[in-house]
């Protein structure tokens, strides 16, 4: 009985992923706790070297992601569903968008809503500009950092994961994204290495974000006089309460806790934004949003490719903002991508990309315009620069901003509530994703595993927060973005390769070889279909069956006054039926031995045609022009003769048309002496 009970509570962890991940996660956190300053200084030096010398890698990678997704959205591949062709979405459109948004931006949207525009506005990089241009720049660069480029990073990972998980029925794991390139090797050490990277990246990203989120929550509660001070003991209490809620939400599943909290949060965020819009300088905000949107559209390509190489005074700003943001979004993309994929089954590729690129981007633009432009307007017109003086304290800047609006208390309470829910929705999504990665997307993982990841998050976040090691962990997370950006390029290649195969599978018609079939020789043809030929068998078919057909056809052509040559070649074996012409191009119809590598599934499956090796051969037709030939192994002698005549009839009709003279002539375009 005891043995049976132990089996029932057996974990679903993949030890090849979990053990090395935990060793690395705990080891890094311990070093960051013991030597926070030294580790942070060292990692910052490495980051500076990477950002200064390899910033173009980030720029090009993110640009390629945007172009690739836009191409897919408008291509014929956009109609393909993330699942079977008859799959239906599991979540309503509103709930789907709410969950995408909550996981993708979360606390960051609250933390930077006022802080980022104000920091761009006061940045020394733009100090030479007047206040109006600095305000425009602040909005433009905030749009750039929180717009289409950020969501393209998330979208590529999410789309690739969803496609291979629901279309190819592979595990919801990053290793699955490389299936077309690695095939079954994804189940080996390379696949495990990718998942270890994803698990560590997800853990570090969530840990640092939650750590900084706790500080902002603590600061807000002090502003509201709910807590007497910002101290570690209160941060411990906040973390314990919110992580407990996150674990409860994660264990209840996507359809319950996560969806409910995401829906509540998006509605609360919209309510807060409308309050600020109507309590602040409404006309100015609507006008500045319109102006900013036009400025973003007009500057899109310049922003995308700008490396500031000719503007040395702005280079430090460029490294610390744009490149840091691209690295941050990339480092977060395994977590957000897996969560996106998990909730997107049944959507079409076009629907997924359009929703991911456009809707969250539009909301971010409105949000950042309302909060950021309100803060800049208040700083210019009402405070005499008081908000500018606080840009070094982003934790409390949002709440200080509310001090200059009516209903300050209501806005602050609502903001604290939203930040807390964002905290929970980010943490519960992260816990669910980490459990999914660590258990290879097992169907029913035990709930204690969710508790384990939640507890580990809370303990390590608090340790780092107390020791001042969060900054080091964040820096290391940014550094991991560089290799993962290259891996994401491989994701794009894999996805494109798979989509081409997918489209070809559903659009491919019957083989040309089967067109003349009448059923007369069905037994013989079935035998041919279920057997594969080696090279000798194909060479024999060409030199006997094809030779006989060509010879009979040659004799009949010559009876009609047309001279024909039948040429034989070796290595590879091929036979060519050729009619020479003086003025027009020659008519050529040939058959050659063609090698074909078959799928391993065909070799291994006992209920498919027997195939001793992966290499097969078949007789393939070819022509005098660049048209693609086809398999002729099923043709009888008369059918092969008929096929040659069909091509000859096409040839005669083309050369008979006066409009084709210059194109079909072999000599008319030559320069004569």
TrEMBL record:
<feature type="transmembrane region" description="Helical">
    <location>
        <begin position="448"/>
        <end position="469"/>
    </location>
</feature>
<keyword id="KW-0472">Membrane</keyword>
<feature type="transmembrane region" description="Helical">
    <location>
        <begin position="21"/>
        <end position="43"/>
    </location>
</feature>
<dbReference type="InterPro" id="IPR000060">
    <property type="entry name" value="BCCT_transptr"/>
</dbReference>
<dbReference type="Pfam" id="PF02028">
    <property type="entry name" value="BCCT"/>
</dbReference>
<feature type="transmembrane region" description="Helical">
    <location>
        <begin position="323"/>
        <end position="341"/>
    </location>
</feature>
<keyword id="KW-1133">Transmembrane helix</keyword>
<comment type="similarity">
    <text>Belongs to the BCCT transporter (TC 2.A.15) family.</text>
</comment>
<keyword id="KW-1003">Cell membrane</keyword>
<feature type="transmembrane region" description="Helical">
    <location>
        <begin position="55"/>
        <end position="74"/>
    </location>
</feature>
<dbReference type="InterPro" id="IPR018093">
    <property type="entry name" value="BCCT_CS"/>
</dbReference>
<feature type="transmembrane region" description="Helical">
    <location>
        <begin position="94"/>
        <end position="114"/>
    </location>
</feature>
<dbReference type="GO" id="GO:0022857">
    <property type="term" value="F:transmembrane transporter activity"/>
</dbReference>
<keyword id="KW-0813">Transport</keyword>
<keyword id="KW-0812">Transmembrane</keyword>
<feature type="transmembrane region" description="Helical">
    <location>
        <begin position="353"/>
        <end position="378"/>
    </location>
</feature>
<feature type="transmembrane region" description="Helical">
    <location>
        <begin position="404"/>
        <end position="427"/>
    </location>
</feature>
<dbReference type="GO" id="GO:0005886">
    <property type="term" value="C:plasma membrane"/>
</dbReference>
<feature type="transmembrane region" description="Helical">
    <location>
        <begin position="232"/>
        <end position="254"/>
    </location>
</feature>
<feature type="transmembrane region" description="Helical">
    <location>
        <begin position="193"/>
        <end position="212"/>
    </location>
</feature>
<feature type="transmembrane region" description="Helical">
    <location>
        <begin position="266"/>
        <end position="286"/>
    </location>
</feature>
<feature type="transmembrane region" description="Helical">
    <location>
        <begin position="143"/>
        <end position="166"/>
    </location>
</feature>
<protein>
    <submittedName>
        <fullName>Transporter</fullName>
    </submittedName>
</protein>
<feature type="transmembrane region" description="Helical">
    <location>
        <begin position="481"/>
        <end position="500"/>
    </location>
</feature>
């Amino acid at each position: 009985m005891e043995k049976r009970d132990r089996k029932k509570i057996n974990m679903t962890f993949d030890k090849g992923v979990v053990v090395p991940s935990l060793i690395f996660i705990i080891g890094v956190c311990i070093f960051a706790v013991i030597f926070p300053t030294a580790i942070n200084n060292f990692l910052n030096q490495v980051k500076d070297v990477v950002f200064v010398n390899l910033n173009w890698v980030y720029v090009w990678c993110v640009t390629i992601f945007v172009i690739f997704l836009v191409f897919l959205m408008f291509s014929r591949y956009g109609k393909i569903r993330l699942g079977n062709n008859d799959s239906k979405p599991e979540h309503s459109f509103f709930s789907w968008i709410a969950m995408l948004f909550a996981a993708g931006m979360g606390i960051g949207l609250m933390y930077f809503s006022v802080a980022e525009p104000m920091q761009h506005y006061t940045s020394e990089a733009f100090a030479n500009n007047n206040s109006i241009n600095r305000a425009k720049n602040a909005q433009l660069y905030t749009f750039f950092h929180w717009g289409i480029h950020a969501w393209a990073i998330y979208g590529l990972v999410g789309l690739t994961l969803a496609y291979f998980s629901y279309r190819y029925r592979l595990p919801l794991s990053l290793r699955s994204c490389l299936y077309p390139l690695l095939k079954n090797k994804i189940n080996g050490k390379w696949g495990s290495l990718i998942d270890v990277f994803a698990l560590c990246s997800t853990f570090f990203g969530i840990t640092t974000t939650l750590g900084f989120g706790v500080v902002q929550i603590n600061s807000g509660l002090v502003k509201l006089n709910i807590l007497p001070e910002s101290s570690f003991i209160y941060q411990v209490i906040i973390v314990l309460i919110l992580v407990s809620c996150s674990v409860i939400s994660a264990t209840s599943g996507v359809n319950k806790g996560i969806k409910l909290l995401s829906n509540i949060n998006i509605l609360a965020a919209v309510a807060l934004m409308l309050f600020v819009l109507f309590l602040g300088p409404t006309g100015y905000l609507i006008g500045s949003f319109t102006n900013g949107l036009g400025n973003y559209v007009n500057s899109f390509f310049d922003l995308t490719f700008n490396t500031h190489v000719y503007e040395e005074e702005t280079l430090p700003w460029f490294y610390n903002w744009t490149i840091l943001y691209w690295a941050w979004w990339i480092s977060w993309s395994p977590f957000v991508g897996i969560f996106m994929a998990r909730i997107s089954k049944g959507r079409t590729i076009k629907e997924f990309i359009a929703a991911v690129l456009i809707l969250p981007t539009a909301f971010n633009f409105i949000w950042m315009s309302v909060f950021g432009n309100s803060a800049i307007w208040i700083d210019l017109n009402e405070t005499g620069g008081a908000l500018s003086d606080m840009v070094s304290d982003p934790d409390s800047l949002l709440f200080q901003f509310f001090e200059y609006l009516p209903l300050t208390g209501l806005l602050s309470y609502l903001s604290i509530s939203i930040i807390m829910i964002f905290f929970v929705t980010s943490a519960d999504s992260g816990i669910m994703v980490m459990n999914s990665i660590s258990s290879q997307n097992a169907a029913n993982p035990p709930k204690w595993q969710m508790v384990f990841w939640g507890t580990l998050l809370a303990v390590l976040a608090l340790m780092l927060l107390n020791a001042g090691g969060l900054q080091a962990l964040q820096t290391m997370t940014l550094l991991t973005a560089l290799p993962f950006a290259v891996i994401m390029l491989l994701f794009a290649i894999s996805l494109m390769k798979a989509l081409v195969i997918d489209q070809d599978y559903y659009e491919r018609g019957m083989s040309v070889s089967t067109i003349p079939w009448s059923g007369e020789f069905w037994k013989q043809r079935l035998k041919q279909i279920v057997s594969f030929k080696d090279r000798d068998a194909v060479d024999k078919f060409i030199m006997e069956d094809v030779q006989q057909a060509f010879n009979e056809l040659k004799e009949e052509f010559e009876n009609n006054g047309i001279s024909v040559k039948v040429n034989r070649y070796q290595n590879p074996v091929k036979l060519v039926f050729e009619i020479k012409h003086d003025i027009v191009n020659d008519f050529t119809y040939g058959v050659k031995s063609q090698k074909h590598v078959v799928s391993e599934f065909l070799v291994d499956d006992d209920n498919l045609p027997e195939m001793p090796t992966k290499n097969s051969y078949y007789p393939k037709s070819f022509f005098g022009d660049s048209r693609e030939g086809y398999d002729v192994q099923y043709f009888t002698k008369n059918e092969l003769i008929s096929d040659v005549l069909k091509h000859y009839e096409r040839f005669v009709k083309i050369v008979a048309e006066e409009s084709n003279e210059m194109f079909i002539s072999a000599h008319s375009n030559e320069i004569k002496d």
